[in-house]
Specification:
elongated, disordered N terminus, 231 residues, mainly alpha, 10 helices
Length: 231
């Protein structure tokens, strides 16, 4: 108490020198670290979004470019795209390339409308240019050569599967029992001549063997009707 008997004075003491500065400095450091962390997170999120949206594979880039170039509704292009890896892998094997093109033509026969094969080439080259960093004239020449060979083979086949299917339906419908019996026997005669060891696996009854042969004949027609399922 002071001498006058008034209200006692409470001394809070002098603030420590530099305490306020330290507090402000701590707050500033915390804010800087928080902002830095948020910025890093934002950059990471943005990079993830970019990685998710930018096509990374040939198939993704092809579908992206097809849409941009106005070919998004050309569903037949997707059939070629599905077979393209196998076609490229076997381009040096003429027999296998012909086989792949035959199968591809069966699937493409189910699409209505006009098929312009050069449109696929345009999208293919645009996609490859986007993916190959050091793309040059030699790349352009090589891939153009590849597609021109595939296009030439396909052009010789396209349109024929529908005609062949109609002819096969008519032929199978005209077979009598004697003709079917001849086909059944020839199926096994041809098979055993090509694979003699197969005789060890076909020891069923005649009725069962005839059923298998009939299914083989009917499957030749199913290949035209449902190529995706059968091939």
């Amino acid at each position: 108490n002071d001498e006058s008997g008034g209200t006692p004075q409470v001394s809070l003491g002098e603030p420590e020198k530099g305490a306020d500065t330290k507090t402000k400095s701590g707050r500033n450091t915390w804010f800087k670290n928080t902002e830095k962390s948020a910025a890093n997170t934002s950059r990471g999120d943005n990079q993830a979004v970019r990685n998710a949206t930018v096509p990374q594979t040939f198939s993704e880039m092809f579908m992206f470019n097809a849409t941009v170039m106005g070919f998004g509704n050309k569903l037949w292009m997707q059939e070629i795209l599905a077979s393209f890896d196998t076609i490229v892998t076997n381009v040096s094997n003429s027999y296998r390339l012909q086989e792949e093109c035959d199968v591809l033509a069966l699937r493409m026969a189910k699409y209505k409308g006009t098929i312009v094969l050069s449109e696929y080439k345009a999208v293919m080259l645009a996609s490859l240019r986007s993916l190959v960093k050091e793309w040059g004239s030699s790349h352009e020449l090589a891939w153009s050569w590849l597609w021109e060979n595939v296009e030439r083979v396909l052009e010789q086949i396209l349109g024929k599967p529908a005609q062949q299917e109609r002819a096969l339906v008519a032929m199978l419908g005209s077979l009598d029992e004697a003709a079917l019996g001849f086909i059944r026997r020839e199926v096994y005669a041809k098979f055993f001549a090509l694979a003699p060891a197969g005789q060890d696996f076909f020891k069923q009854s005649t009725t069962r063997l005839h059923f298998i042969a009939d299914r083989l004949v009917s499957m030749t027609l199913d290949i035209y009707k449902e190529p995706k399922k059968m091939v």
